[in-house]
Amino acid sequence: MDTQPNSPEARDIRYNLHAYTNARRHQEAGPLIIEKGEGIYVEDNSGKRYIEAMAGLWSVAVGFSEQRLVDAATKQMSKLPYYHSFTHKAHSPLIDLAEKLVQMAPVPMSKAFFTNSGSEANDTAMKMIWYRSNALGQPQRKKIISRQRGYHGVTIASASLTGLPNNQISFDLPIANVLHTASPHYWREARPGETEEQFSTRLAEELEKLILAEGPETVAAFIGEPVMGAGGVVVPPAGYWEKIQAVLKKYDILLIADEVICGFGRTGEMFGSQTYGLQPDIMVMSKQLSSSYLPISALLINDKVFEPLADESNRIGTFGHGFTAGGHPVAAAVALENLRLIEERDLVGNAREVGAYMQQRLRELSSHELVGEVRGIGLIAAIELVADKATKAPWGQPGALGALTNGLLQQNGVISRNMGDALAFCPPLIITRAQVDEIISALKTSLDEALKQVRA
Asked: Which of 53, 78, 331, 440 has the fewest CB atoms within 10 Å, measured from its CB?
């Protein structure tokens, strides 16, 4: 780290509180300052280039510095730099994007509602569900079931839905009416001799027991990512979503599909809901919606959700919820152009084809002494590191081996992210086979370097 008193690193330490960072550790280590991006690569302020194997934060679908998105933002900024959608107001990018999203949804949807982040969108979903229950004369029906290791954001409500301890410890979360059921991680959670189908059946039975214990008349919705992202890239086992949805249907419980990471091609289909046969009532989307060039997120709701909301807003006189920048015209224009690029360049097909190659190449590392499991689908994957393959035990404190290897990988020119001992890979959808090979080469080197330190 540059220790000059007026260096960017020193000023960052002095003035910036970082997200998802140990603040005391940051005072010692300082930042990696990224100055440029092009395609799947980013460059730091010393000129070193990295493969951004996380697409930023699971999100830069079309790669960095895509000129068409820059042009879309510039054109809209010069025409209408800002407007809102309160009190019957609208603008063309908002209308066009709402129409586009409703029409491309994998199941019938009625309306789009725009927010600025996945956290805001999931917070809004919770409010909509409570509002709907009151509209239906079911004021007791307010509970929402999420899953352990699920990730749904960091606002007070969405962080309550999140099933990761560090998002709740010392924040006095979760709030009331949020429940959590088991994570569908077969490799980690299955019982000895249990098949994937049996594991899925047990999790569905556990969900039903939870619903019955709480009272079905009090449970409004279930929320889940088609593939869990920040919880470690947990791919659902065989039969899981079919069995879970059967329980929800039995008790007339809404399904929220959190497509913030999976949406717009990540799993090799346009939506993760298509990959796993989900039939959601609400779809939440962000990240690859605009390739995160500008903040934007959206909820799609079906008529089962919309009609009671509309009736209640008519009774009250307004739907008293919205954000100043929700559906911002520049962000919406960029999102529309981003979706055109995804379709024109068949980036969903690329995610399917090159994703299969990435999965294959990663699984070639399964025999490495430190690799416990390789999992993923399309262009999202994780390798989980262990000190002992038989017992799945970590090396030292949980997360230590993941942090060590992730640090070595960054030194070797690839930016990943370790979630505990799981290293995630979620590169831009434009990645090529040759670039996948670059990632695998650096990863293999990093694993070997980590192994030497573990043995020492």
From this structure: 78
Query: What does the mean pLDDT of the chain come to?
Result: 97
Taking residue 361's Cβ as centre, other Cβ atoms within 10 Å add up to 19
Angle 441-40-368 from CA coordinates, rounded to 5°: 25
Reported as a single tens digit per residue, the pLDDT across 391-447 is 999 999 999 999 999 999 999 999 999 999 999 999 999 999 999 999 999 999 999
* 393 DSSP assignment: B
- Segments in 90-139 forming alpha helices (H): 92-104, 118-135
* Distance from the first to the final alpha carbon of the chain: 26
Written as one string, the DSSP assignment of 162-179 is ---GGGTTTTT---TTEE
Token reading at 334: 């960029």
Cβ atoms of residues 66 and 341 within 8 Å: yes
pTM: 0.96
- For every residue of 212-280, DSSP letters joined together read HHH-GGGEEEEEE-SSBSTTT-BPPPTTHHHHHHHHHHHTT-EEEEE-TTTTTTTTSSSSHHHHHT---
Rounded distance, CA 412 to CA 442, Å?
6
CB-based contacts of 105, cutoff 8 Å, min separation 6? 271, 283, 300
* Other beta carbons within 10 Å of 390: 7
